[in-house]
Every structure is written in C-alpha cells, then in structure tokens.
Design goal:
The protein is an alpha/beta fold. It has twelve helices and twelve strands. It is elongated and about 75 Å long.
C-alpha cells in the first residue's frame, strides 16, 4: 500500500513539475528564442538543444537516479545548472517585459534586450555556482539553564542537507569535512538529507564521512531524501561510514546531554509507518537534564517542545529557499524557516543547509556549517 501511494505521489509530483517546468520553457522560447527569427538548420538545432535541456533534469533525477558514472554525472551537472538558469531567465525576462511595457512601450523585445537578459542571467549563474561552494561557519551560542558544569562550553557542529551524490562529491565534500573537523567539535550532528539516491551507488562517498571526527561521535537523523533513496539502504550506507542514526530514539552524551532523534514526517507516505509522537520517543528521558532534538523538517511547535523539556531543536530542510526569491515561499510555509528562534528557555535553529539540491547554485542563501556552543548563562 505504501509503495502504491508513493508511486502515485511520484507520478503526480512529476506531472506537476513537468507542467510548471514546461511552461517556463515555453515562456523562454516565446520571449527569447522566437524574436531571433531563426530559420532552417539553426532553428532545428536550437529546438533540439532546447528539448534536450528540458527533458534532461527529469530523466536524470527521476528515471536514472539510481545510476552513476562520468556520463550521468556530467549530464546531471549540465541539467541542474540549466534548471537554475531557467528560474532566472523567466524572472529577468518578466522584469524586462514589465519595464519595457511601462517605460518603452513602442520598443520591441529585440536582440539587444535578449542579449542583456542573457548576460544578466549568466552573471547570476556564475555567482550562484561560486556561492554554493563557499561554505561558511555560523557561530551560535545557546543558553541552557540546566546545563551541567562539565558541559558548559560544549561545542556541537551541525551540517544539514548536504545531498551527497552526483553534484556534491569529491573535493567539494572533502572541503565540508575539513571545515567541520577544523572546528574540533565535541559532537557532530547531521540533521537529514545527507545522501541522495545516487550516493548509494558510489562507494567512494563513504571515505569523507569516515573522516568526520569528534569527541563524542557523529549522529544523524534521516531527512525526506533518505526515504526517497530507500531508508533501509540509506541507513546501512550511513552507519557503515561510522555515523550513528538516531531514528525515533535517544541517547545520553557525555553523561548528561540527552540527544533525541526523530524521523522525518515524510515517513508514512513512503513506508506506511507513522512517526511516533515525540512524547513517546522521549519516554525515559530525565526532565532535569538538557535535551537536544534532531529533526529534519522544522514543523515542531514551541508549545510541544517546552512541554517535553526540549531545550534545543536543530533542523534543516528549507535551504532558506536556496535560490532567491524562493525564500519568500519557504517563509510562508514554515514559521521557523531559517535561523534562530527562541521562546523562553527553548531554541529552534534551522540551518540554511550545507549542500544543494537541484541547481548546484545558491543565491541569497549561502551554505553553512553551524558551530553551536552550549552555555548555562552563568
């Protein structure tokens, strides 16, 4: 039943995606290609290239997502970059259209405007590609009133939404690991979407993960992409690399910190198994001890967290939109969409994410590793 539901959901998602993506391509063709008045072989070559670019992303990421290899990796990169360019080709062209209609209504959308659009989108693309590789460290101090003295100053490194696979791999992945290890954290936590399906076919992906080092170990919770990749295979892959998966359970760290892991809410749609209530997951925890919750999707409420004595929730999932202006949409969907949110003695921190999904670009949402220092406020 769960597989049938997932298949129906995937077909529906793909249909909606193709409708929107196809509409974007139609708009680009009408506003940027047709005014060039191409003929003969040039027109057919442009139509062929346009069609191939349109189909490349859904083919690679939905039909061949369990395959790897140099050809697939190259096609994935090109199709993913093109997807990001489509976003800005539509936005920039629309803005130029509005300006032209109000300021220069008699002027056609000619070659000069098309060249200006192309140049601006090329600049945004280059910036986005560079920004996606420029991972920064966000320092965060979190006050926990009941923090034992021996845990004061404890340093937690959080990475999220790395999306290891055809795009985030090799030197880029090594750089992330080096940055995390350079923080010399007491604890490393990974708040979901560590791997995409392609990574499970690539044994070399384990090597960077195995280099992650901290005093008290490396812990992770699954995100929606671990479920899409196959949660059992993803968990086996991650744990073979030396990372402990916390799936609806908790452990005690350093004799005092209670670390809780909760599965992503996509679980019932993929596996047919409901995620237990947080109260059930936390049975046996000591309310007098500090508690940190790892939960990929930031849909918890402060009321629930405070009632159960959770001091800090670490999440990801949103990427802060990854590409402006999608941050505006994400902000509407999630009350805690990015950054730090505090109510009383409870803090929620939602990471911008460390990698990328889809376009290997970031515009207005620089990737981050979060360095969290725990304090009792004394």
């Amino acid at each position: 039943m769960a597989t049938k539901t997932l298949n129906k959901g995937l077909v529906l998602f793909l249909a909606i995606f193709l409708l929107i993506y196809g509409g974007a391509h139609a708009y680009i063709w009408l506003r940027l290609v047709r005014p060039l008045h191409l003929e003969g072989g040039a027109l057919w070559a442009m139509a062929g290239a346009f069609g191939a670019l349109f189909l490349s992303f859904p083919l690679i990421h939905f039909m061949f997502r369990h395959r790897s290899g140099r050809l697939i990796a190259t096609a994935s990169f090109v199709s993913s970059v093109w997807m990001g360019m489509v976003v800005y080709l539509v936005l920039v062209t629309y803005c130029f259209d509005i300006i032209r209609l109000y300021a220069y209504p008699a002027d056609p959308f000619g070659r000069n405007m098309i060249a200006a659009v192309a140049a601006l989108v090329a600049g945004i693309t280059i910036y986005g590609l560079a920004a996606a590789r420029s991972v920064g460290v966000t320092d965060l101090q979190v006050r926990i009133p009941n923090l034992p003295k021996h845990l004061v100053g404890m340093r937690i490194a959080q990475i999220s939404d790395v999306h290891m696979g055809l795009i985030v791999r090799g030197p880029r992945l090594d750089k992330i690991v080096d940055l995390v290890n350079g923080l010399q954290p007491d604890l490393i936590v990974i708040t979901g979407d560590l791997v995409d399906a392609e990574a499970l076919q690539m044994g070399e992906m384990m090597q960077p993960l195995m280099r992650l080092k901290s005093k008290y170990g490396v812990f992770a919770v699954p995100g929606n992409h671990e479920y899409f990749a196959g949660i059992d295979r993803a968990q086996a892959f991650i744990e073979e690399a030396g990372v402990t998966m916390l799936r609806n359970r908790w452990v005690t760290i350093a004799g005092g910190l209670q670390l809780v892991g909760r599965d992503d809410p996509v679980s019932p749609r993929v596996t047919g198994v409901a995620v237990p209530p947080l109260s059930e997951i936390m049975e046996g925890t000591d309310p007098s001890k500090p508690t940190v919750l790892l939960y990929h999707t930031p849909d918890s409420t402060f009321q629930e967290l405070q009632a159960l004595g959770v001091n800090l929730q670490l999440s990801g999932h949103t990427h802060k939109g990854q590409l402006w202006p999608f941050n505006l949409i994400v902000r509407v969907i999630f009350k805690t969409y990015y950054g730090r949110f505090t109510s009383g003695d409870t803090t929620i921190y939602v990471s911008r994410g460390t990698g990328t999904w889809g376009p290997p670009m970031r515009v207005g949402a620089r990737p981050e590793i979060t360095a969290i220092t725990l304090t009792n406020g004394a």
